[in-house]
């Protein structure tokens, strides 16, 4: 099992547990499984188990492979400095395409930036802006979403819709093909520009007891033409599913 796949699953599970608008303060551990559909040509889906750790405090938080500090936190608003692992990567050895195997690696990275949430009776607005701090892509990612939680006692369902913007540098690193790669692999040279990708997601959290909870998360993302047109890509969308159980102390 490759380490970046472990991190990828932990990031997916963090999204499943952290999806509720307001998390109770405290410490929890979780175990589950995640499966993701990759956009890269010839790369199979993964289904693997992952552990995770979460902490929610008055000023600081840890959510799986991410952490942050609140600049503002009250019953309606959360403004935070965020640092998190971005699991997107490409390993030529993972592809069953002969030409894809001749491309360079694209590394996962760490992203840092600002996140803001506003909670109201009419729903939740979630936004973020982050940058690649390891300088693999020198790119930026922005995200905005609207969510509305439905409370059924022990069960909470939170559907949402949103869109992510990726800078040209970010897309070109992960989906572009240089002239050198083109000559080596036979794939056409490609320069990717910035893109918008709309998505729909839903999370479910069910309290078995005061301490034990189960969770599930799913997201469907529609890829922009700047990504779909890359010779590295053979899909028009990606999907992500995660589910598991957590224990709160």
Automatic annotation (TrEMBL):
Q: Which BP terms does GO give this entry? A: peptidoglycan biosynthetic process
Q: Which InterPro entries match?
A: MipA (IPR010583)
Pfam families attached here?
A: MipA
Tell me which UniProt keywords the record has, alphabetically. Cell outer membrane, Membrane, Signal
Asked whether the UniProt record includes Signal among its keywords, one would answer yes
Protein's cellular compartments: Cell outer membrane
Q: Which domain of life is it from?
A: Bacteria
Cellular compartments per GO CC: cell outer membrane
The answer, when asked if Signal is one of the entry's keywords, is yes
User: Which sequence ranges are marked TM in the entry?
Assistant: none
Q: What is its main location?
A: membrane
What range does the record give for the signal peptide? 1-24
What protein family does this chain belong to? Answer: Belongs to the MipA/OmpV family.
How is this protein named in the record? MltA-interacting protein
Q: What is the lineage of its organism?
A: Bacteria, Pseudomonadati, Pseudomonadota, Gammaproteobacteria, Enterobacterales
């Amino acid at each position: 099992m490759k380490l970046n796949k472990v991190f990828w699953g932990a990031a997916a599970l963090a999204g499943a547990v952290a999806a509720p608008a307001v998390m109770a303060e405290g410490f929890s551990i979780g175990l589950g499984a995640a499966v993701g559909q990759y956009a890269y040509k010839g790369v199979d889906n993964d289904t693997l188990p992952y552990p995770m750790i979460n902490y929610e405090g008055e000023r600081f938080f840890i959510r799986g492979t991410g952490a942050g500090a609140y600049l503002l936190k009250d019953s309606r608003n959360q403004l935070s400095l965020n640092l998190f692992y971005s699991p997107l990567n490409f390993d030529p050895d993972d592809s069953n395409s002969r030409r894809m195997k001749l491309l360079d690696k694209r590394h996962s990275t760490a992203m840092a930036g600002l996140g803001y949430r506003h909670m109201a009776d009419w729903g939740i607005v979630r936004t973020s802006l982050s940058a690649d701090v390891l300088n693999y892509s020198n790119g930026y990612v922005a995200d905005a979403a609207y969510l509305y939680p439905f409370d059924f006692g022990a069960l909470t369902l939170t559907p949402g819709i949103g869109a992510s913007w990726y800078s040209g540098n970010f897309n070109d690193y992960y989906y572009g093909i240089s002239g050198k790669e083109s000559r080596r692999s036979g794939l056409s040279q490609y320069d990717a520009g910035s893109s918008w990708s709309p998505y729909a997601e839903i999370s479910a959290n069910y309290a078995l007891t005061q301490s034990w909870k189960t969770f599930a998360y799913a997201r469907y993302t529609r890829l922009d033409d700047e990504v779909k047109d890359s010779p590295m890509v053979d899909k028009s969308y990606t999907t992500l599913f995660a589910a598991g159980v957590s224990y709160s102390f």
